[in-house]
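Batch 3, record 17
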Amino acid sequence: MSRPRRSALFLPASNPRAIAKARGLDCDAVILDLEDAVAPDAKAEARAAAVEAVRQGDWGHREIVVRVNAVETEWGATDLAALVGSGIDAVLLPKLSSPDTLAQARGALGDRPALWAMIETPRGVLDLPRIVDAGQGLAVLVAGTNDLAKELRCRPGPDRTALLPALSHIVIAGRAAGLMVLDGVSNVIGDPDAVEAECRQGRDLGFDGKSLIHPSQIDPANRVFSPDEAEVEWARKIVAAFEGEERGVIRLDGQMVERLHLADADRVLKIHRATRR
Ligand SMILES: CC(C)(COP(=O)(O)OP(=O)(O)OC[C@H]1O[C@@H](n2cnc3c(N)ncnc32)[C@H](O)[C@@H]1OP(=O)(O)O)[C@@H](O)C(=O)NCCC(=O)NCCSC(=O)C[C@H](O)C(=O)O
Ligand SMILES: [Mg+2]
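Prediction for the assembled complex:
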């Protein structure tokens, strides 16, 4: 398993207070945004601040990612050029709609860093099979639920019913290619129960974690996307039951358990070990 990505916190790279705050927050990834959270006349300043924040380091266990402006925009090429050799863990490409854009970004960046892609346009959703098969160091898909709702002209509401087909499609495509998949943001601040409910929905759809916009959303995301005590105990039981066992299927606590469950138990225990801090 790659590193845990239960909580990926966006912040505008133009906000120095948020950058300072993020160094002390318990999120798994920090995404310095140069795109929609930054006004056009602050783009150059935000770009310079992001590069400086990466250079200064002190990010601890947190993965450090920069969301650039779309390659097709007037800022895209300059953003990518500024990040060459910067030492960031990944570049997040917004509104990714074609594998050609992945290749273009890779060409501009060289061998590193990894690429993450926001799937938030109808074309991006439809072309997911070609996008995930393109390689280019693509490691993570992130659902862009605000842009998707806008483009589809749908009304997701609190239960996000209108977005479920697209969200599931993102999970299916990501899993088919062995990528990690992160759910879109919740715009709700100050209602941890609502955020936790949305995290649970995302986890149950198959997402590995959630993208976030406020520090108060980190705890619910970390809690929901970590295996709970009962899951860890059950996983340990399965691993113990298969030790020295030659059969492919056994009966355990009144349930049928197969080796596919053993593989999943191994995954659960790996996440548990990686997220104990
Ligand atoms: C939404 C906000 C503008 C709210 O800001 P504010 O009202 O100032 O929040 P608070 O007063 O509650 O803040 C308390 C302290 O926490 C810090 N803070 C707030 N947000 C963050 C953050 N994201 N990261 C780090 N620190 C944060 C404040 O600075 C306060 O600190 P201090 O004063 O020292 O106590 C704001 O939360 C915000 O800007 N959020 C991120 C917005 C963003 O990045 N948006 C872009 C990504 S979302 C998106 O585009 C999704 C996708 O593309 C799609 O289409 O769906
Ligand atoms: Mg978006």
